[in-house]
Structures are given as structure tokens and as C-alpha cells.
Amino acid sequence: MNMSLLANILAMSTPKPGQPQPPIWIQLAPMVLIFVVFYFLLIRPQQKKAKEHDALLKRIKVGDKVLAAGILGTVTSVREKSVVIRSEETKFEVLKSAVTEIIERSESSESGEKSEKS
User: Fold this and answer.
1) Does domain 59-106 match CATH 2.60.120.260?
2) How do residues 32-53 score in pLDDT, each as one tens digit?
3) What is the pTM of this model?
């Protein structure tokens, strides 16, 4: 019974001689729909997250407490592509892209943000 059902389904999918082929846009519609779904579920959220991370990296100031590559520390200097972090008695230089979160803003950067908003 299952084999005859499968054979009937396969027979329906192939066009019979003399039948016109469906228009190309009908055949491409499922592909376009899949791309649109992937865009809104995967690509767009990743782009939004990348923009937020870039904005975070631009806001890093000396004195901020940050989480970078699993290391909690205070920023002692900011360079073009790296950040120097002091954690306890150790100094690390890590890439800015390794900074995942600003845990606590320094007092000087907080007062600068408040004066910009006012």
C-alpha cells in the first residue's frame, strides 16, 4: 500500500506530455520565501547585534570596568585596535573586539554622558 501511494505521488509531480509547464515565478516563489524567512530570522538579528557591539566598542573609556575574553578588569588605556586592562596585579592588552560587555562605567564618562543628554 505504501509503495503504490509513493508511486502515485511521484507520478503526479512529473508533467505529462502535452501539459504546459508552470510559469517560472511559481517555481521560484518557494526559494524567495525561504530567503525572506532566513533574512528576518538569522541575518537581520546578527547585523543588529554587530551594530550594537560596534557602538559598545566606541564607548569604551579609561576607567570603565569591562568583561573581555572572560577577564574582568579596569581599562587603563584605549588604543586604536586594542585595550589595556588591569585586573588585580596583572595587566593585559586585548583586542577591542574581545570586549563583550561594559560592566561599570567610570565616573568621568557617566558625568560626560549626563551633560550631553541635558
Assistant:
1) no
2) 999 999 999 999 999 999 999 9
3) 0.64
